[in-house]
Amino acid sequence: MQILKYAAITALSMTLAVACVGGPASDEDKTGREKPSLFTSHSRNITATVEAIDHDTRSVTLLGPEGKSITFTAAEEVPDLVSIKAGDLVHTEYQYSLSIEVFDNQDLVPSEHKSAAMGRTGEGEMPALGTVADHTVTATIEAINIEAGTLKLKWPDETVDEFSAEDADNLRRVAVGDIVVITQTANLAVSVEKAAVE
């Protein structure tokens, strides 16, 4: 939970800095006490070429699009490794998202939930696999100091962290006891394409 927790602290600081996605709140929004929220995501697609492969040791060397090579040992989850040859193309697509939302607490206590799933091709097919992982952590707002521009969160492991908001006025959008829900999702898809026959 530590990695998600500290990433969330940074992101929540950003959230309280702008009140909600789209920019600072208007006076009308502040009157309605709309809770802060944040959603951010990014994705990346990379195609690399198999430079070398040792099927016995499962060692694979890939040449990236910028001319840099990387060598690693393929996990046992990689199906049909024997069908991969030098010159084949490896396509990788990665997607990541992080959302943070603040809600009135309905007698909830801080909690943490993880889920993951993986799928892969069967024998006789070119190797491909996909994974998805979700990690949700909830924290309770323990204290708010408008004058100092700070806020404290209590996590599921009972630890409490304090951090500052760039715009202290946005702290008026939250209240002690509110629940903060932080969710990060990561998707990874990898597939191998046979080298073109010349």
Give structural attributes.
198 residues; mainly beta; 9-stranded antiparallel beta sheet
Q: How would you portray this structure in words?
A:
The chain is mainly β and 198 residues long. The chain has one domain (2-193). It contains two helices and nine strands; from the N terminus they run H-H-E-E-E-E-E-E-E-E-E. It has helices spanning 2-18, 27-31; strands at 37-54, 59-63, 69-73, 89-103, 112-120, 128-145, 150-154, 160-164, 179-193. Strand 2 (59-63) and strand 3 (69-73) form a beta hairpin. The longest helix is centred in the N-terminal third of the chain and has 17 residues, at 2-18. The termini are far apart. The model is unreliable at 17-32 (pLDDT under 50).
Protein topology:
Layout: H1 2-18, H2 27-31, E1 37-54, E2 59-63, E3 69-73, E4 89-103, E5 112-120, E6 128-145, E7 150-154, E8 160-164, E9 179-193
Antiparallel strand pairs: 1-2, 1-4, 2-3, 4-9, 5-6, 6-7, 6-9, 7-8
From the spread of the alpha carbons, the general shape counts as elongated
Mean pLDDT: 81
Q: End-to-end distance, in Å? A: 50 Å
- Compute the number of helices: 2
The structure class reads mainly beta
Query: Beta-strand level of the residues, as a percent range?
Result: over 45%
Beta-strand segment tally: 9
* Low-confidence parts: 17-32
C-alpha Rg, in Å? 23 Å
What does the largest sheet look like? 9 strands, antiparallel
Q: Domains counted in the coordinates: how many?
A: 1
Q: What is the succession of H and E elements?
A: HHEEEEEEEEE
- What's the helical proportion of residues? 10-25%
